[in-house]
Amino acid sequence: MAERPEDLNLPNAVITRIIKEALPDGVNVSKEARRAISQAASVFVLYATSCANNFAMKAKRKTLNAGDVLAAMEEMEFERFLEPLREALEVYKKGQKGKKEVSEQKRKDKEKKNDAENDKSREEEDEEEERMEEEPEAENEAEEEEVEN
Questions:
Q1: What pLDDT is attached to residue 10?
Q2: Contact 45/18 with Cβ under 8 angstroms?
Q3: For the whole model, what pTM was predicted?
Q4: Inter-axis angle of helices 12-22 and 31-58, to 10 degrees?
Q5: How far apart are CA 85 and CA 83, in angstroms?
Q6: Number of helices (H) and strands (E), helices first, in the chain?
Q7: Closest among 47, 38, 30 to 6, alpha carbons compared
Q8: Three-state secondary-structure class, residue 89
Q9: 123: burial class by Cβ within 10 Å (0-12, 13-18, 19+)?
Q10: Residue pLDDT tens, the chain, 149 long
Q11: How far is CA 131 from CA 2, 138, 143, in A?
């Protein structure tokens, strides 16, 4: 848990951005109002988390999941937010799936590149070994010619 109550508040920059996005241009919000909204948002998050935790505990889990949060929103009588939350969750899941696929493709490409470099390196080593084997033979032939002369 947080050591001080202020540690539980959301960052002011985040609150300010949310407020600006929610209000039309030209509307000003006092510092006091921003602080009140910040505290209210923090209390809401804590309450929603606590309710979601109750659902996880009933299911004998220690990890909260999206279903717990959605159930908590319903229990808190915020049903009108359920559909937008579900839609946002789907968008998030699709984004995560896309990131995972991109990451997996990058990993595969890197493996292919490493395999190609290893194959090239092996080929160069094999060629070098062949040259090394051929050189003593050529030297032996040259020595034999000298001996004959």
A1: 83
A2: no
A3: 0.60
A4: 100
A5: 5
A6: 4, 0
A7: 38
A8: helix
A9: exposed
A10: 566 656 677 888 898 899 999 999 999 999 999 999 998 998 899 999 999 999 999 999 999 999 999 999 999 999 999 999 999 999 998 888 888 787 788 888 888 777 777 777 777 777 777 777 766 655 656 566 666 65
A11: 70, 10, 18
Q: Are the beta carbons of 10 and 42 closer than 8 angstroms?
A: yes
Instruction: Give the contacts of 110 (CB within 8 A, at least 6 positions apart).
Output: none
Short-list 35, 34, 41, CA closest to 19: 34
- Give me the long-range contacts of 74-83 (CB less than 8 A, separation at least 24): 75/51, 76/47, 76/48, 76/51
CB burial class (10 A; 0-12, 13-18, 19+) of residue 68?
buried
121, two tokens: 């390196």
